[in-house]
Amino acid sequence: LCPPGLQPLCSRAQVWGRSARRHPGLLLAQSRAFSNNKILVELDEGAGVATVKFKSPPVNSLSLDFLTELSISLEKLENNRACRGVIFTSAIPNVFSSGLDITEMCGKSTEHYAEFWRAVQRMWLGIYGSNMVTIAAINATGGCLVALSCDYRIMADNPKFYIGLNESQLGIVAPFWFKDTFVNVVGHRIAERSLQLGTLHPAPEALQLGIVDELVPQEKLQDKAAAVLAQWLALPDHARQITKSMMRKSVLDRLVTHQEEDVQHFVSFTAKESIQKSLRKYMEMLSKKKG
Questions:
Q1: For residue range 2-44, what is the model confidence (pLDDT) as tens digits?
Q2: 123, 126, 183, 215: least buried by Cβ within 10 Å?
Q3: Which is an annotated Pfam family here (predicted)?
């Protein structure tokens, strides 16, 4: 049974399944083509589980190319009836993801800013609205937006690792759908304070605030993620998927309804000289730190 108003969401898995059955050769081709320059996908069709590893040195920043490859990989998995769950992790030591790539927002054309922001939207819609079970295995620092978009977050227990949405530190503003995602995870007050300050929370604090669900020793992270995913996959897919849709539909619909408006707002805001100056200043600060 599907609640009123959710029929389109509830029918997605059925549509994808019928498409896959009509084109079995396509499934095989997709299974062989999951690795690309910045994303490595390991699919265990027998278990129905894919591990998506970020491999874009030095820090897995969410560049236009990275976002495009991630979205393509996710869409292939979403359309593969053999895949029911995904674990996101990093193949690069000491960083899960540094977040939005500042170089994509600084000194470029307005057309580039629009293309970049559409790629960010597409990535979030793909993860937050996925029919698959999504687990973030945060084996290092960063990646807050990706992690918040998942169903469950497990982080390596290391006080040197941190996570948060630090847009305000860059002089930019987290959009409403970043905010909505954060509020849904940690509540309004914690999200308000954290977003205003652009706080990056150490792993123990992230657990205390509810940004992550569990901390485990680094060496046990992947095994724990697999065990949690197995628990979620033990449930009937349709019941879990419909429940997830009910919980997330209003947030997803809000972006879909205002998608182009959101792009134009981002472009006009980012292109302001005051914002460009803030971004250049932040990039200079990062360069000095590296030096």
A1: 444 444 444 444 433 333 333 334 444 344 346 778 999 999 9
A2: 183
A3: ECH_1
Q: Phi-psi bin for 138: left (phi > 0), alpha (psi -120 to 50), beta?
A: beta
Q: Into how many domains does the chain fold? A: 1
Q: Does the active-site annotation cover 100?
A: yes
36 is in which domain, residue-wise?
Answer: 31-289
Residue 184 annotated in active site: no
H/E element, 136? strand 133-138
Is residue 64 domain-resident?
yes
- Tell me the per-residue pLDDT of 168-212, one tens digit each, with 9 for 90 and over: 998 889 999 999 999 999 999 999 999 999 999 999 999 999 999
**Is 167 designated active site?**
yes
| Lowest mean pLDDT, pick from 57-61, 87-91, 220-224, 279-283 | 279-283
| Cβ-based neighbour number of residue 27 at 10 Å | 19
Distances from the Cα of 210 to the Cα of 17, 147, 247, angstroms = 35, 12, 18
Q: Which of 27, 67, 100, 195 is catalytic?
A: 100
In a domain, 138, yes or no: yes
Which one is catalytic: 99, 126, 129, 142?
A: 142
CATH of the domain at 277: 3.90.226.10
Task: Let me know if residue 5 belongs to a domain.
Answer: no
The residue among 271, 256, 232, 231 whose CA lies nearest residue 112 is 271
